[in-house]
């Protein structure tokens, strides 16, 4: 079975909930294996809201936290995700929108493009023997489907996390260098002043212990 991260996007919120219910039913019947799933919506202000979730086919919103689905949702809700979601102007179901998403290098960016402002989506980690089950489900509800291998998405999430940590470390280094240049004289003064106060405190503690 292929392990994929599926994004089913809809213009109507109710369709995303129906898709979640039908996906859980398909899992119960053994036609797919549902690992994790969550329903999210993006407001017209670009903000992402988590609506509902499932883990192994049961209603358990916390179940997807700490998983690949949770990591992707976290990225989609971050600054880049808000920007992409807010700027996506094409209507859900528009083939042009899907083409644009497919041409994006970043897989998370592709997913973000499939959840523009005003859309609701079901993001799920599933194991499927054939794509027809989910493709037919989406087609019956008028949804847009984006399917990417879990392994590829996980690799990108790991890379983006590492890049973010490296960027934060570099930002701290640059800030430290700027501070050293801008505050060099004052830092030396503060250092000496602090040493005097620290010595005074140590003497008072010494006297206290001697009593």
UniProtKB/TrEMBL annotation:
Top-level lineage group: Bacteria
Official protein name in the record: Putative membrane protein
Originating species: Frateuria aurantia (strain ATCC 33424 / DSM 6220 / KCTC 2777 / LMG 1558 / NBRC 3245 / NCIMB 13370)
């Amino acid at each position: 079975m292929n392990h994929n991260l599926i994004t089913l996007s809809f213009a109507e919120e109710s369709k995303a909930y129906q898709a979640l219910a039908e996906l859980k039913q398909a899992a119960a019947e053994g036609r797919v294996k549902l690992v994790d799933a969550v329903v999210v919506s993006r407001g017209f202000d670009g903000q992402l809201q988590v609506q509902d979730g499932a883990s192994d086919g049961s209603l358990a919103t916390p179940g997807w936290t700490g998983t690949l689905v949770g990591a992707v949702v976290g990225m989609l809700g971050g600054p880049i995700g808000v920007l992409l979601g807010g700027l996506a102007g094409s209507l859900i179901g528009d083939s042009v929108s899907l083409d644009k998403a497919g041409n994006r290098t970043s897989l998370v960016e592709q997913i973000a493009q499939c959840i523009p402002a005003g859309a609701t989506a079901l993001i799920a980690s599933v194991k499927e023997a054939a794509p027809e089950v989910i493709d037919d489900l989406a087609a019956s509800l008028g949804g847009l489907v984006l399917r990417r291998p879990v392994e590829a998405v996980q690799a990108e999430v790991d890379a983006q996390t590492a890049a973010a940590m490296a960027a934060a470390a570099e930002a701290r280094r640059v800030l430290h260098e700027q501070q050293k240049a801008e505050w060099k004289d004052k830092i030396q003064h503060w250092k000496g002043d602090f040493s005097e106060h620290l010595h005074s405190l140590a003497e008072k503690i010494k006297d206290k212990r001697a009593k």
